[in-house]
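Lay summary. Proteins are chains of building blocks that fold into shapes, and those shapes determine what they do. In this project we predict the shape from the chain. Here is one chain we studied, written as its sequence of building blocks.
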Amino acid sequence: MTQTIVDTTADGLARNGERDTDRERRASECPECAGTVDHDEEHGERTCTECGLVLDADAIDYGPEWRTLDDEDGRRVGPPVSTLRHDKGLSTTIGWQNEDAYGNQLSGRKRKQLQRLRTWNERFTSKNAAERNLKQAFGEIERMASALGLPEPCRETAGVLYRRAVDDGLLPGRSIEAIATACLYAAARQHGTPRTLVAFESVSRVEKLPVQRAYRYLSTELGLQIEPADPVHYLPQYASELEISDDAERVAREILEAAKHRGLHSGRSPAGLAASAIYGAARLTNDRLTQETIGEETGVSSVTVRNRYRELLDAYGEARDR
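And here is the predicted shape, written in a compact code that computers can read:
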């Protein structure tokens, strides 16, 4: 058996220190040109500052991996907290595929076992009625927002509004679908991407009247300060649906600005004004667009378009003459 003898005398310790110092010096010098070696911690590289030789690459960083995702959330791994999840995204989801990591189909016994795990996971992630309520409502908000093409911030705001309604006890006696639709309608108006109630009715599981009542109730109880919708906010979606030219969209915007300057938007449907402005602009730019086509795509009746576009064109003509 070999026995290692450590020299603990003063001379021995000095020699050990000199060897360590010499080792560190050689590690900090380039073996090619004896230049200074620089350690780039961000990229995990050790390179020579003189000749550019790369000594090490892809070094392992043993430090923490903290990321600041928002003001209150700093976690090592995982996505940021989402207000559109009943548990804010902190639970585990078991996928529906009956495959292993290599894409191979599972056996019948394994599939049954995985299905039992999914069932118990589903029960544990929504333990009470309140969590099941949130889960159903947030699913409805995601479905309707996807159908209407609403952006992610709008969906997050709708989730926050619905959670506030649940915390304040505003849901008893009202359907989950009506409150969820009203929250999304309010969020769309707050973010400047409004949709008409007719559009919401087409994707919601409830009719327009319950949504109107739920929206008025939420506005009163939650103290929502929502300004009247601007007709200009409806132009981008209508222009996309009707596939009008850029010139027609620009003229329609100018028509609405002239109408607002004269106060013609007061007390009138912003969606109807936007559709009428598009029809008037199409006539000025020689775009082939009928009142019936506008009514089918926007949900605004052709009667409204016919009654509004003339006075909008009059206001536009007066604005150009000044």
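What the prediction tells us: The mean pLDDT is 82.
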